[in-house]
Design a protein that fits this description.
This protein has one helix at 3-16; strands at 26-31, 45-49, 54-58, 64-70. By secondary structure, it is an alpha+beta fold. The protein has one domain.
Length: 74
């Protein structure tokens, strides 16, 4: 799994997110696929990082990942 593909997926997910208000939490979810074949990638490590936090997860058998309860940040 290329780091560039994972970075592009995270940027796309962040651009689609709505602005957060103080006291709320949000989440990010998506699917990691192979760029050449669009086959889902199982067990890919996905990381989300902001100035105040960092979280990691791995994709399931269908390439899906979910981050829940992320604090608002820039």
């Amino acid at each position: 799994m290329s780091a560039r593909l994972i970075g592009a997926l995270l940027v796309a997910a962040l651009l689609c997110a709505s602005p957060a208000r103080a006291g709320t939490t949000g989440g990010i979810s998506g699917t990691v696929v192979d760029a050449g074949t669009t086959t889902p990638v199982a067990d890919a490590r996905v990381t989300v990082t902001s100035p105040s936090q960092s979280a990691n997860t791995t994709t399931d058998a269908a390439g899906r990942f979910h981050f829940v309860s992320l604090a608002p940040d820039e």
